[in-house]
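Ticket 4471: requesting a sanity check on a complex prediction with adenosine-5'-triphosphate. Repro inputs:
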Amino acid sequence: MSITADTITWKIGSKTILEKVSFAARPGEMLGLLGPNGSGKTSLLRLLAGLKRPHSGTVSLDGRDIQSISRKTIAQRVAFVEQHATTNANLRVVDVVKLGRFPHRSMFSAWTHEDEMAVEQALERAGMASKRDHTWQSLSGGERQRAHIARALAQTPREIILDEPTNHLDVQHQIALLSLISDLPLTSVIALHDLNHAAMFCDRLMVLKEGSVVACGTPEEVLTTELLRDVFSIDAHVELSAHHGRPLIQFKRSDRRKRGA
Ligand SMILES: Nc1ncnc2c1ncn2[C@@H]1O[C@H](COP(=O)(O)OP(=O)(O)OP(=O)(O)O)[C@@H](O)[C@H]1O
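Returned structure tokens:
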């Protein structure tokens, strides 16, 4: 197993945010994390990245408790693209992406051919090579998001954790990003709000409701009309797409007034 959570519970004050969450991300799989606003997705991703400590339970990397692994060693293998990642300095795109190499370098080591290759490949994969010399402040929200993805890829991680990475992206770049992530030979855990995108690209899905896991399995197993009603409070029709063979969710309007009625 790659990343594992074993009955983790996390609280803020007396409020339980995550309760006894367990799952195992398999090496190389794309695991989608779904759930309504406030269900605990970001909190779980921050625990998986080692940025927060669970109150009880364990997060492990290849069976080793993440608390026993140094921050630098974690950063050499786990990349985290946060939802509202920002950078204040007005760096060029290529300089932001170079920051991804930081965990692999010691303070006085020279910039290597390997570093250069990782940065170039990451810029290329994230579709940001043509913007490499643009300054951060000149980028659109979607371009900034892709630059953050490039920085994460430059880290040459084995696991990548992404918190709603398609926010701000136009539909072309949403599909391109999800295709990219699903084609990478990495384990990815990705929080998504678009259920159809999750169904199309993820190998498995895990659903959180009020801090607890209520479903985990293949998109076909998880995305049922019953689950959509229970967890997301929506009426929907689910069928297998004739184009990609994955579940296709068609939402029913809650407003029952028909046009012209
Ligand atoms: N710093 C904080 N102080 C108090 N409560 C918090 C804090 N951070 C998160 N929470 C609460 O924890 C719960 C889970 O939040 P979290 O951001 O993990 O949910 P989410 O599923 O990622 O939501 P969204 O889909 O809106 O991004 C929410 O009820 C939220 O209000």
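Notes from triage: The first helix runs from residue 41 to 48. Leaving this open until the requester confirms.
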